Each structure stands twice: as structure tokens, then as C-alpha cells.
Amino acid sequence: MKTQNPSKYPVFEADQVLSQKHLNRAISYLEEQDRLTRVGGIGVGIICGLEISHPQPNQITISCGTAITSLGYQINWEEKTFSYYHSIELSADFLAPKFIDGEYLELTLPHAKKYEPLKNSIELLPTNTLEVDRIAIPNNFFKDKIVILLLETLLIDEKNCVTTNCEDKGKRIEFKIRPLLISINQLNPYLFSEYPKVMNFEKISLPRYNVPHNQLITGLDVLNEFKKNLADSVISNVSDKISLVYKSYKSIISNTVDFNVLNNPKTALETVINANKDSIHVQYLWDWMSDISSAYNEIIEFNERNPSLCCVDETMFPFHVVLGKADDDNINYRTPFFSTQNSSLKNKQKRKELSLLFERLVHLIKFWITEDHVIKITPSFYGDFPLSEKSIPFYYDHILELNKKWSPKKTGKNKNNEILSYHSEVAGYTTLDCVKKPLLYDIEPYNFFRIEGHIGKNYQEAIKEIIAVKEYHNLPFKVIALNAADLENHTPNITTFEGDWGEIELNYDLVRRDWENVIGKSIEWILYKDVKKEIDNYPKIKPYFNSGRFRKNELDLFITYLKRGRNSMVESFSEFLKFYSSFIKTYEKIEDMARNYRENIFQNLGQDENKIFAEDLIDHLDEIIMVCQKGEFRALYQAAMLKWKEISQNLTVKKFFETHSGIEHKAGVNKGGTFILIYESVNKNRISSEIMLNANPVTGIASVDARPLTSTTALAVPVIRKETSDCNDKLIKIKADFERFSYNILPYEYRVSFMNHVNRYLFYDNSIKETVVQNTVIADFYLPYICCGEGDNINFILEKSKVGDFNHPDFNEKDFNTPQ
């Protein structure tokens, strides 16, 4: 307990007769003020130094340092090395002093009684000691011993009067610092009072995603890995630590909000997690738990120093300080320093900041939400930064209130309008344009970009939006998408690829131009009015095509196929792939018809009345036959399939995670990193069994459950009606019929739209169960480095066009028998 301070001291007057009592009271007051100044203005305990080391196994050094005992006595120590020891008996003048009236003695000396257990002790002696009873320190002497500095305070009697002189009558106080070795079993509560507990809480550390590594293949695998970090053991650990720190601090934080949820956060955490853990928003639950952990860690880091003592218990260590265990550096036995100045927890402003940190923790736990949002990129920080310095995520409600609690330091300076957040543009807490639209301003201070609002969106739309924002603001990161599907035995539909085909695209451009040139010129020559008229009347061309309701003369049919082949030459190779199979059929039909015409004309050339026209017609047919581009188109398609198979495999979660280390999830990407969107495609067992098409009597397009449309385009978007096991076969038939009859009847953009819809629903494995919505973003990750080029280019070398030889039917001497 604290001894009552002197409340009075004597004031002397002239000619006053003074007694020892008057003088001692004056000294008592001044001496007490000195000690209280140290204790009340500085603190108690070891201030600095007084470290233990061992130059040799049988030596011990105590470094210089300063300490203040709980009575306020200051210990100043010069460094010494000890090689000897001896046994001592503490003086009775210290343990049981006899003193006369003197208030300052009554305030201090009685505390020495607690050192009675140390009456017989071992004292360390320096290397240069001359003590006759010195004993050299042996090896292993320091095991299980504690080093203390004892401030021995002796009240020595100086009454040595003789008959002629009594000038030495009285007493004196002597202080002597003794370095003692105390056995650990002598540390008992009577000798060493329990110190005030240091606020030292354990941090929360959440497990990393997919560590230890498991192979991830499907979207369900990706989502389940997030759920592992939401296990009951993790929730319990977070809840217990939050509850403990709240109970420890609740007496000094303001009660401006209801902190009840912090008594047992587990119930609130489990309610949110159980309601959302099976949704595609599960990654944000993991982020939410990470935010809560960071908020807790910021609280326990708020004041890591020893607690302050405004009211010091003088009985803690009145005449000693403990330096530590003699044989190691275990600080559990060392007297800590307790500051008595205004500590962070005693300062009003700091207490307010601490209260806001707890209020923020309550807000995070109570107001987690998930809603559909627009895609937005917000600068932020990652690494060793407190949560209050990062931007506010999108998945919290009541942003205006959260903004006031997010950064207590900014709130204290009335600068919380500077806090970046997903909602800063619409929340209404700021008018600063650099906060509403931070990407338009200097981003040098930031090392991370939060990317939010894309979960649940179609991955192609999401990646286009993110890239658009990235390119508009010139942001330094890359974006890729990975398919969470098992493609070991399956290859996705090649028509779904929208990337760069590289040199294949260039080679396709060369081949299609050659084909267009030949076919286009042939069409122009045939449609020339005199030529067309003569061909119409040419008897050597027999009816060739007769199918169903279509009956056309041979020339119109041939022109139709020629136009169909020419119109298939779209500029984009990706679009061409959608019509590749029907184009090859058209190409073969043109070749077949041209060869039949040529053979028929050639065989009757000798009896032809118009040999010049017949040979001219043969030359144009030869040009069509000899263009020989079908092999090149097939080679391009095969090269594209090889490349697509490699790309589709490389851009799966399984393959990518195996070959790229360091993938993390933080709901964004660092500067210079790669942002990764995860979606699932191909693994689907339910598709549309009914595609609404206008059963156009002119086109004869096959349809399922045909329904009239308001549009005259004979086309509509596929809609899901029911699940059938044979719908894939139906779609294939619909696609084949469409390819057969649609050319030159439907405009190009409608053909592309139809093929896109049909291809979207074609799949390869009916046995795989659907786990997530197809082609939607279900998670995101990042790599801390730029990864992956724009795609592996395949060097495709075109062979030279085949040149006709001089053998039949390429060459026949009768071709030159035209009369001169």
C-alpha cells in the first residue's frame, strides 16, 4: 500500500530552540519529495541497462544501468565482471533497524523486513576483489539462480562519546548495492510481489489459402478451399481472442455503442458464415474474417508497452530489482519498467482512439453484406499495414458510420473524408475528387489495387470491364481468366476462344484472300450478262441438284454455292471457326460440281458447236479446281485446334496452379502483378433442350418446339425449358440444318449470333455434375509478378499452292484444238 505522504514540515524562527525532532521532520519531507518525484514523474523498475552476460562460463558481467525501486530509491550501477563469490549474512541494522523519531525513517525502513528470507545469501565479488573469503566461481554455478541487486540500507549508530567529546553523537544512513545470487525456489510471493500484468495478447494469424497444397481442379474445389479457412476451430480461435481482449479493455473504453457482441462473437460469426458459405461469395467471407483478425491485431498493437502505474505499490520491490536468470536470457524473471507518465491508455485522445477501434470491430462483425455491384478498382495497401490504412471493402453496410471508425487517427484529426473505399463516390462522406476518383490522381503511395464487383458476372464481360478500367487509368497489372474445369479428356468448344490467334490469323488472311480472289472473279465472269445468257442455254450442263422443295437450274445452284463460299470468308479467324465445317462442305460441293461440269464439257468438246466458249468455260472451272486451298484451310483448322487444346489446358486452374507458385487471394492485385479470375466452363449436365426458332418455310430450318417470333430474322436467343438427356444431339442436328440452309438467306450477323448461342450450349461430358453457374466468376487470386504472354503463337508455314501438271485432267492436248 502507499504510505501517507508527510503533510507538514517545520518552519524555523530566530532564537528558536531546535530539537532533533524538528530537524528530522524537515529532512523527512524533503527526502520524501525526492523519492515521490522519481516514482510519480518517471516510474519504477529497470529503466535501462543492467544486462547479464558471461565472458567465461565461470564469470558473469552486469552491464551499467539505472533502476528505481518501488520506494523511489535510484540505483546507479557501473559495469562489473564477477569471478568470485562469498557467503554473507545481511545486517540486523538493515533487516531490523532501531531508529528514533524521524518520519522519513518510519516511511521506508520497515519495508526491509520482507528481506528476512535473504538473511544468508551468496554475494558476487568482482574479478579484482581482495576479500579474503572469496571463492572462485566453478562451472555450472549459475544454474537455476536469479541475479538481483539489493539496495542495503543501514541505519548506523554513531554514539561514540568520550569524556571530553560527543561530536559524533547520532546516527547515519548508508546505502550499499549488493549483487546477490538467489535460488529460484526462494522466489515466493512474500519476497517478490506479483507485478502488474503486462497487456500482452496473442495475435490472430489465419491459415493461407491452399497451404499445404492440394490439387484444385473444379470450381467446387476452389470454393471448398475457402471454406476450410472458415472451420469451427478458426472461428472459435478468433472469437476467444476477441472476447479476451474486450474483457481486458472494457473498463477503459467508452460505452458509446453496444459492445455486447464482443463478449461472445462466435454466434454472430457463425450466423453469417453458415448463411453464405455455400454461395459464390465465400471468398468474401474469408476476406471478412481476415479484416476482423486485422482489426483485432490493431487493437493489441495499440499499446504493447507495459501498463502505467499512477499509484505505485511501494511493497513490490522496495530495496531491490531482479536482473534475470543467471544462466540464460529469460526475461520472465526480470523487473520490468512501469512508467508513471501519461501512457497511451491514460491519455484521453488515445482512449478515444482505442474505443473507436473496438467500435470498428463491432461494426465489421455485425454489418457484412453481399449485393451485386458494379466493377470498381480502388487503390489500397497490402503487406505490413494496419487495417485502418487500407481502403474500405465493398461488403460492409452503413458506410457513413464505418467511415468514422475505420481510421481513428484520421477521425481524431477530422480527416476521415480522405479514406478511400469502394463506396467513396456514392456514400456521401467526402467531397474530395481525389477520394471519389482516386485512379485519376497520383497512385505512387499505393502498392495494391482492390478489384471488386466481378463475382457472379460472366467472366468474359468481367475481364473486358476490368481491362477497360485498367487501360483507361493506365494501371500496372495484367488480367487473365482461368477455367476451373477438368479438361484432361475434354477440349472446350474452340468457337468460345476470343483471344489472339497470332500467326494463324495472318496465314488465314492470306489463304482467304486467295480463295476470295478466285471465287469472286468466277462469280463476276459467270454473272456477266452475255456469259450468263450463253451458259443458261448451254446444253452440256445437266441438272445436278434436286433436293426437297428446292429446285433450281444448274447455273443458279452453282452461283449460290460460289456466293456461299465467298461469304464464308469473314475477316476474323475466330468467326470463321464457327462455320468451318459447313464451309468445307460448301468447298467440296463447289469442287465436285466444277469437276463434273468440266468433265462433261471436256468429253463433248469435239462435237461442241461453240468450242471457244467451251474452252473458256473449262479454263474458269480449272481455275476454281486448281485454287487448291481446301488443304490450307484444314491445316489452319488443325493448327488452331492444337493451339486451342494447349491454351485451354494451360488456362485451367489445375495446370496454372501447378506451374505458377505464389498465388494468393487478397481481393485484388499488387502493382506489377497478375490478377486472376476463376470461372467454370464445360462441366455442365444441363443445357437448353428447346431453342426457339421461327420455322421459316423458305429456309426449312429444323426446330424444336418452334414458336412464332415478332422478328423476321428467323432467330432468337436460346432459352432453357427442361432437362433432357438427348438435347445435345438435338442441338447438333439444329446446327447442321442451319449450316445447310442459312447461307445467303440470313444476314451474316444473325448467322454469327445463332452459332454463338448453339455453341454456348454444346458440351462434351453429360456425366459431370453442375457445381456453379457456367462461365461466371466465382473467385479471384493474384500473382505478385506479371505472368503469361498474350498466347503462344504457332508458326504455321503454308505450302505453295499446288500447280497443275501435264497429266489428265489438268492438261489435255485437245484443249488446244480450237479452230484458228
Characterise this structure.
The chain has 820 residues and is an alpha+beta fold. Among the domains are: 43-162 and 170-186, no CATH class; 223-310 and 348-453, no CATH class; 503-638 and 801-815, Up-down Bundle (Four Helix Bundle (Hemerythrin (Met), subunit A)); 686-762, no CATH class. Helices cover 35% and strands 13% of the residues. Strands 2, 3, 6, 7, 8, 9, 10 and 11 form an eight-stranded antiparallel sheet that branches. Strands 5-4-1-12 form a four-stranded antiparallel sheet. A three-stranded antiparallel sheet has the order 13-14-18, with helices on one face. A hairpin with a 5-residue loop joins strand 4 (65-68) and strand 5 (74-77). The protein is elongated and about 175 Å long. Mean pLDDT is 76; it is low at 542-552, 683-726, 762-771 and 790-820.
Quickly list its features.
disordered C terminus, single chain, 13% strand, alpha+beta, 820 residues, 20 strands, four-stranded antiparallel β-sheet, Four Helix Bundle (Hemerythrin (Met), subunit A), eight-stranded antiparallel β-sheet
